[in-house]
Amino acid sequence: MRVNTSTLRRAGAVMPMAMAAALCFAGTANAAVSVNWSCQATVPNFGVQTSSMSTSVTTTAPASVKTGTPATITIAPGSSTVPLHPFPFVTVNNIHDMQMTIEVSNATIDSASASGGTVSGTTAVVGNTVVLSVPASITGGTMYTPPAVTINVTAGAVPGPITSKYAGTSYSSPGMTFTTNLTVPLVGTSDATTSCYPNPSPTLTSTTITT
Questions:
Q1: What is the secondary structure of 71-122 as a DSSP string?
Q2: What is the mean pLDDT of the chain?
Q3: Is the backbone peptide bond immediately before 200 cis, with ω within 30 degrees of 0?
Q4: How far is residue 58 CA from its own chain's centroid?
Q5: What is the rounded CA–CA span in Å between residue 103 and residue 55?
Q6: How far is CA 110 from the centre of its chain?
Q7: Residue of 16, 25, 113, 143 with fewest CB within 10 Å of its CB?
Q8: What is this structure's pTM?
Q9: What does the alpha-carbon distance between residue 95 and residue 3 come to, in Å, rounded to a whole number?
Q10: How far is residue 163 from each of residues 71, 97, 120, 125, measured CA to CA in Å?
Q11: 152 neighbors 112 (Cβ within 8 angstroms)
């Protein structure tokens, strides 16, 4: 996964925001697509911080399916490294309890699963969304790869595209969250929750439904 340099309102945002690329999914069949995330976190001694960043992952999906027939979408995020010292005197101990939400339209989600990667995850189908949860504690300074997500759907009855994209429209309605455990001078050990949403939100996969 590629993470570009973030433009930050305050330097303290680097720590939690640099990890916001932990789980990201993008693209159409066998394609890598850049997605911009807007993120926010409250860091002890630094207050509310915001940033933006670009990430990239690879997905696969069929080009077309017939109405009422099954299709499979696979989302495979790349590797990320958890920062250890994002800025002077601050240490990232670990990140944990990540969640990513993917929306699917014009199809019924039949099942979803997570596999592979260097950290384990589970999936839950909630209406027209799939929530990937990675509860593992990932130590600061280490590289890891999130699991790939496979989504099995049944095409809708009306011709048109089956699309997938990240959920999330604001900091208060995010599509990605995680917790950073860090050590801050004069504070000690503390958790900082990061909330991110895709801004703008691109179509990640598109499969045409035919009769």
A1: EEEEEE---EE--S-SSTT-EEEEEEEEEEEEEEESEEEEEEEEE-SSS--E
A2: 82
A3: yes
A4: 12
A5: 18
A6: 21
A7: 143
A8: 0.81
A9: 17
A10: 12, 27, 26, 16
A11: yes
Residue 182 contacts residue 136 (beta carbons within 8 Å): no
The number of helices, as runs of H, and strands, as runs of E, in the chain is: 1, 17
Residue 156 sits at φ, ψ, to 5 deg, of: -70, 175
- 28: pLDDT strictly greater than 80: no
Joined together, the tokens standing for residue 193 give 């929750």
User: In this structure, which CATH number among 2.10.25, 3.90.470, 2.60.40, 1.10.540 belongs to the domain 7-201?
Assistant: 2.60.40
Element (H, E) at 17: helix 14-18
Structure tokens at 144: 């890891």
Amino acid at 6: S
Segment (H or E) for 66: strand 64-66
- Whether omega before 16 lies within 30 degrees of 0, making that bond cis, reads no
Structure tokens at 155: 């095409």
pLDDT tens for 35-50 read 787 888 887 777 787 7
**Dihedral sign from CA coordinates of 200, 140, 2, 50:** positive
Structure tokens belonging to residue 132: 């990937």
